[in-house]
């Protein structure tokens, strides 16, 4: 297996190893909290988590657009 992997160009290996990741709602909130409450810059947060900054900002927009739902009466 190692011999086959060594013959595959680096960019193809990287693309092949990437799989779609799933972030739970709790994960997303924890990631957003890193920036908003702990003051970690978006660029650093995304770099640490290998996350595209556009994804971070999509989650932020979603939170701000739907945050009022957290305050609804049960």
Derived structural class = mainly alpha
| Strand composition percent | under 5%
Q: What is the architecture at the second tier of CATH? A: Orthogonal Bundle
- The total strand number stands at 0
> How many separate structural domains?
1
Query: Roughly how many Å apart are the termini?
Result: 55 Å
- Rg for CA atoms: 17 Å
Query: What fraction, in percent, of the residue positions are helical?
Result: 55-70%
Order of helices and strands: HHHHH
User: CATH topology, what is it called?
Assistant: Arc Repressor Mutant, subunit A
Poorly predicted runs are: none
Sheet of most strands: none
Outline, from the CA principal axes? elongated
| Tally of contiguous helical segments | 5
Write down the overall mean pLDDT. 84
What is the CATH class? Mainly Alpha
List keywords for this structure.
74 residues, mainly alpha, 65% helix, single chain, 0% strand
Task: Write up this protein.
This protein is an all-alpha fold. Helices cover 65% and strands 0% of the residues.
Explain briefly what this protein structure is:
The protein is 65% helix and 0% strand.
Please give the structural blueprint.
Blueprint: H1 2-7, H2 10-17, H3 25-36, H4 42-49, H5 53-66
């Amino acid at each position: 297996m190692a011999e086959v992997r060594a013959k595959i160009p680096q960019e193809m290996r990287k693309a092949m190893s990437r799989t779609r990741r799933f972030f739970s709602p709790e994960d997303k909130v924890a990631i957003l909290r890193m920036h908003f409450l702990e003051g970690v810059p978006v660029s650093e947060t995304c770099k640490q988590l290998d996350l595209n900054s556009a994804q971070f900002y999509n989650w932020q927009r979603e939170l701000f657009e739907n945050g009022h739902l957290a305050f609804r009466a049960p």
